[in-house]
Each structure stands twice: as structure tokens, then as C-alpha cells.
Amino acid sequence: MLGGPQAGILVGRKDLIQKIKKNPLKRVLRVGKITLAGLEAVLQMYRDPAKLPEKLTVMQLLTRSQDAMQAQADQLLPRLSESLSSASLKIKTLPVLSQIGSGSLPIERLPSVALAIEGVDKLGEKHVVRLERLLRSSDTPIIGRFQEKALIFDLRCLQARKEEVFVQTFLAALARLAK
Residue 2 in contact with residue 57, Cβ under 8 Å? Predict the structure, then answer.
């Protein structure tokens, strides 16, 4: 997994590569010039591994420290908890495992930190389900997952530059929930 376009590279003995070149499927399976250009650009980034996380977003997100995600959660928690209490919802941080891929790494998981939201009103209506729908249908959708009756927002992929959009979208959805 390079973090670039999906493509395969064949490497092997000359006689085996020649057999593949003669196979009619080669024409169907070959990649185009745009994919090759993208692959070349990503491979150029790998020439300087120390700078890779700052140049390649996927590497930046995969290598985030748990301390950084916990600090982010600790900063977001007070901003959201005050508004959630009026909607009979509670928020807390939770250690989780992030699924990092479905193609080349389908079952690999990395330790992460999430915000977990739970709550129902006095009539048993699941506010957390309504909140999830409101967030998913926002102009800037926020996608969470349900885990053990809580709505989970894994922070692994929440970049610092997107935090304010996350908070404002969240608060707007809470305001719509209160109506």
C-alpha cells in the first residue's frame, strides 16, 4: 500500500514477464498514463521517507500517535459536551481500533481514540440515532459508526485543519435535533 493510485507492478523472471505480455488479458489489465503518472509521483515521495508523512496524507493519518489523537479528543470534548447535555446525550473519549484498509490491508487495525456519544430521552427515543442521521445528511457530512449502543467518531482521520468544520457541523446538527 503506497497511498497513491491503485495499480499493480509485475516483477519477475524475463521469461515469465514475456508470457504475461503475450496474454490477451494484458491489454485489459494495463494501467493508463494518468495512473502511471500518479504512481510515479507517489514513488518519488518515497525517495525521502522522513518527509513522507508531511507529503502523503494517508501516511500522515496512519502514523498519527495515540497521544496526538487523545489530545485532540481532550480539546474537542468540552466544546461538544455542553451542547450535548441539553439533548440528553453524553459524550466521552474511548480507545478504539481503526480499520486501515479494505484492499491491501483488509483486517489490519491500529489503536485510535474516538468520541463516543450515548443517550435517550425520557420516552426512550434514541436521540443518538437521530443525531447520526442529521450529521450524515449535513452539507459537510460527518460519518460515525455504532458500537455497543454508542455513536463513535474515530479521530484518526480528523485533521487539525478540519476540526472547526467538525465542531460547527456537529453544533448545527444538535441545534436541528433540539427542534
Answer: no
> Could you tell me if residue 169 is inside a domain?
yes
* Residue 93 in grid coordinates: 473519549
Query: Domain for residue 30, yes or no?
Result: yes
Phi-psi region of 154 (alpha: psi -120 to 50; beta: other; left: phi over 0): beta
Note whether residue 78 is domain-resident: yes
- Enclosing domain of residue 79: 64-178
pLDDT of 87 strictly over 50:
yes
Per DSSP, the three-state class of 99 is strand
pLDDT in tens, 32-61: 899 999 999 999 999 998 888 888 888 888
Mean pLDDT of the chain: 87
Can you tell me the distance from the alpha carbon of 84 to that of 44, in angstroms, rounded to the nearest whole number?
Answer: 46
3-state secondary structure of 43: helix
Domain count, the chain: 2
Distance CA 169, CA 82 (A): 15
pLDDT at 125 over 80: no
